[in-house]
Amino acid sequence: MTDSAHTALPPVRVGLLGLGTVGGGVINVLQRNADQIARRCGRRIEIIHAAARRLDAPRICSLDGILLTTDPMSVVENPAVDIVVEVMGGMNPAHALIERALSLGKPVVTANKALIAHEGNALFERAEAQGTLVAFEAAVAGGIPIIKSLREGLAANRIEWLAGIINGTGNFILTAMRDAGRSFADVLAEAQALGYAEADPAFDVEGIDAAHKLTIMAAIAFGMPLKFDGVYTEGLSALQTEDVRYARELGYQIKQLGIARRHPEGVELRVHPTLIPERRLLANVDGVKNAVLVWGDAVGPTLFYGAGAGAEPTASAVVADLVDVVRTLTADPTHRVPHLAVVPSEVSDLPVLPMSEVTTGYYLRLMVRDQPGVLANIARILADHGINIEAMIQKEASETSAHLPIVLLTHPLREAVMNRAILAIEALDSVQAPVVRIRVESLAG
Ligand code: HSE
After folding, report:
1. Number of domains in the chain
2. Residue 364 sits in the same domain as residue 429
3. Is the pTM of this model over 0.70?
4. Residue 140 alpha carbon, nearest atom of ligand 1
5. How far out from the chain centre does Cα 434 lie?
6. CA of 332: how far to CAs of 82, 108, 132, 148, 321, in Å?
7. 196 CA: nearest ligand 1 atom
8. Is the beta carbon of 258 within 6 A of some atom in ligand 1?
9. What is the mean pLDDT of each run of 10 residues along the chain (445 residues)?
């Protein structure tokens, strides 16, 4: 190491909002790798002021040399603070704090996916007007540098679609339920203890956190505004263990996927449990790991894999943003990488397609009475709707039930057609409603 190389410029002084799992990870990574990081920035990065709700809470890091407060606005407004790092999460007061930092012309690094998904359009506009920026690598897929990859590494490509496992807690729960047969509540409690889950874990299990992240990735991939309200979202909580088992018998894994796809008439944005062929790499992403598969017209498929949550993986992304921001401090604002990958005047307001227009395959589980003609009636309804069956298994009835399960896989078709066919099937006397429906993606080109 050559000390002189990074002592020529004074240290950059950071104000940190939040000293929880991620804040603690950021302090530890910055302290442990201080020399490496200084070599990359050409100067040192120092956290000088930090805010937490409680100053006496147990910490995973040393706070030596950091001025502490319970008043986050005093950190933002401290004239000695050059860059604000927000890792407190939640909409408020994070929103007001970031707005204030931007109005003071201070760059902001945030891990706050909900805030970026809901308020990012206005925040980016404000940052650009002030000649500053908001960096948010840690908002999506924890430590995976997916924002930088979409925005810069794949800049040559027309991105056609992306699909990702982008909620670590949900994937952790699904994996433990599948492999260890543990209950949903038990695994969720472990994910909370490990610091993976959101303050309100419903955000994880109901797909809302994944929808925030999908909103952000789609905006960058397609150069469109953030459109969280357009994301179709279905959670994991209704998933039955028998469907996980039948899916495996058919050669599939069930994963909670976020999918964004470009069409001539708009984009589809959806988060839901999905059957994926077992041979795909994505189907083998387990535990708290995340992965995002991106299809670019020039590069073809690329897969990004890593820890999707946790103190230091998330800190890895926060600190990478800090390094980026430090490097841009002296750059002309008009020559910085734009927030949404395209220059602001080129952001294109693509419509989000309704779910009824989406084309996908389906897994259906029907509970039917064990009597002649039932299967023929179901097959006729599917044929009348032009639905092609790809595979079918019929299971034995349990001793306690008058109904037996039939599991079908269909070729891809439009959701509106599937909805009509399911209504017709549910109207049959011999079929118990509701029919279980899980979407299937081949994830081929
Ligand atoms: N609750 C989130 C997850 C944290 O489990 O993925 C990382 O964004």
Report:
1. 3
2. yes
3. yes
4. 8
5. 29
6. 17, 17, 10, 20, 18
7. 5
8. no
9. 62 97 97 96 96 93 96 98 97 97 98 98 97 97 97 98 96 87 84 89 96 98 98 92 91 97 97 97 96 98 95 97 93 87 95 97 96 94 97 83 92 98 97 95 91
